[in-house]
Design a protein that fits this description.
alpha/beta, 26 strands, about 500 residues, eleven-stranded mixed sheet, Protein-Tyrosine Phosphatase, Chain A, UDP-N-acetylmuramoyl-L-alanine:D-glutamate ligase, globular, Udp-n-acetylmuramoylalanyl-d-glutamate--2,6- Diaminopimelate Ligase, Chain: A, domain 1, six-stranded mixed sheet, about 30% helix
């Protein structure tokens, strides 16, 4: 329980009706979660406007309402305090942090942003911390963790109420560090406002989320805002190989540090060997052997190493521990046929750039003779891929183009169609193909059947890539989440094969 006046710090108040010297027992932005003596923050959303639900919140027992537009005089209740603010999302972030006694001030929090690589970098950092026997938290797309306890994840970055509760629980569990993904949506919606950071990491930026941001410049600006707000005591770590990495830190007060595998960087890695068995890397004069695959994972590992060094962790111990780590679920996750002759990969690649990097990696190891050395014939790459419904439509034809350019056989299929017709999504993907590319592309709306078809067509030495959903254990169809697991379907299909 907190006094309302004590949790309003930073909320940018325009007007107050009533006394803020009242106690509130909770802060929520969902009227369905309001309890007696709670504080309801009315958020104007893209689909639902919280202001329309103020009456429901009051009926549920809200003692205070935070809003951008005050209810009409006749609609106000005498026993309710109304606080008008300039921006409700910003206010919610401050109220949530203040309500939980600003837990971020007592944690070393490192936020990772970028189109691709966020989950891998954050997860590896958490696992590395645990190998150093440090109690740490994780906030990621796949899962949240408080030390080793799993807390289910619903968003890449939780809303401010959920996020600050997570931080508070981490502190209660003895955590000293937290590694978290920072999505562009979260940054634009001020979910991290009120959270002091020890450091921030930029992995890369490519085509994604333009349905939300409108254009690429707005997308860049959302990512950049993370670095703009860093204090001078923090570090700003950027990928020197990535476009716009200098833009990210143009206005930052933080200490600038770079990492990379190609360009000159403060933390530079050289790839010695890249195969399906893993990577051999050379970092700061030392060799690192890892089970992770692909140049992009060399970049991810370099970012992890750089963060560890910025946190003051021992260099040699860091390299030793890194060699023990596996990739997160659904990130270049390998599945083998019973006889080991067919390699299969499940990856979350759901953007054109991520799909390109995965396919280029598979082509590289194929060309190096790592796949079909015993078959006497050139191996093929078979790619099963779809695009999500109710999301950025502009990337659909590009995804098909990338798949057809780099794979030998492509099956377009359903991803999470949500409210859209899967056939219509596939048609939009096909629109990006020229006549020559179209010859190697088929389609099947049934994702399970598409995976089985790829496995049936696969020959010894081939690689089957199932892209787009990665770690997800469901398909979203017409408002329902139905059980679906790419890894399980793929494993069963290879066994049948």
């Amino acid at each position: 329980m907190k006094l309302l006046k004590d949790i309003l710090y930073g909320a940018r108040i325009s007007q107050v009706i009533g006394s803020t010297h009242i106690a509130v027992e909770s802060v929520v932005a969902d009227s369905r979660q309001v309890k007696p003596f709670g504080c309801f923050v009315a958020i104007p959303g893209m689909v639902v406007d919280g202001h329309d639900h103020i009456p429901a919140a009051v009926r549920a027992g809200a003692a205070a309402v935070i809003c951008e537009r005050l209810p009409e005089t006749d609609d106000r209740k005498e026993n309710v305090v109304y606080v008008q603010v300039e921006e409700a999302r910003l206010a919610l972030a401050h109220l949530a942090a203040n309500f939980h006694d600003n837990p971020g001030e007592r944690l070393k929090i490192v936020a990772i942003t970028g189109t691709n690589g966020k989950t891998t970098v954050a997860t590896l950092l958490h696992r590395l911390a645990r190998l150093f026997d440090r109690k740490a938290g994780l906030v990621s797309t796949v899962e949240n963790r408080i030390v080793d306890r799993i807390v289910p994840a619903t968003h890449t970055t939780p809303d401010p109420v959920g996020l600050q509760k997570l931080f508070a629980d981490m502190l209660d569990a003895g955590c000293t560090h937290c590694f978290m993904e920072a999505s562009s949506h979260a940054l634009d919606q001020h979910r991290l406002t009120g959270t002091p950071l020890t450091g921030a990491v930029f992995t890369n930026i490519t085509h994604d989320h333009l349905d939300y941001h409108g254009d690429f410049n707005a997308y860049i600006a959302a990512k950049k805002s993370l670095f703009d707000k860093l204090p001078a005591t923090a570090f700003a770590l950027t990928n020197a190989d990535a476009r716009h990495h200098d833009t990210m830190v143009a206005a930052t007060r933080a200490r600038r540090v770079t990492f990379g595998t190609r360009q000159v960087a403060d933390h530079k890695t050289r790839i010695v060997e890249n195969s399906l068995g893993g990577l051999q890397l050379h970092i700061h004069g030392q060799d690192l052997y890892t089970r992770l695959i692909g140049e992009f994972n060399a970049s991810n590992l370099t970012a992890v190493y750089a963060v560890a060094r910025e946190l003051g962790w021992d260099a040699m111990d860091t390299l030793t521990h890194l060699s023990l780590l596996d990739a997160p679920d659904g990130r270049m996750q390998q599945v083998r046929s019973g006889d080991g002759n067919i390699h299969a990969i499940v990856d979350y690649a759901h953007t054109p750039d991520a799909l390109r990097k995965v396919l280029e990696t598979l082509r590289t190891v194929r060309q190096a003779g790592n796949i079909a050395a015993t078959t006497g014939q050139e191996s093929r790459i078979l790619c099963v891929v779809g695009c999500g419904g109710d999301r950025d439509r502009t990337k659909r034809p590009i995804m098909a183009q990338v798949a057809a350019e780099l794979a030998d056989l492509v099956i377009l299929t359903s991803d999470n169609p949500r409210s859209e017709d899967p056939a219509a999504i596939i048609a939009e993907m096909r629109s990006g193909l020229d006549p020559i590319q179209a010859r190697k592309v088929t389609s099947n709306q049934d994702r399970a059947e598409a995976i089985r078809s790829a496995c049936i067509q696969a020959q010894p030495g081939d690689v089957v890539l199932v892209a787009g959903k990665g770690h997800e254990k469901y398909q979203e169809i017409d408002g329902e989440r139905l059980p679906f697991d790419d890894v399980a379907i793929l494993s069963a299909s290879l066994t049948e094969h």
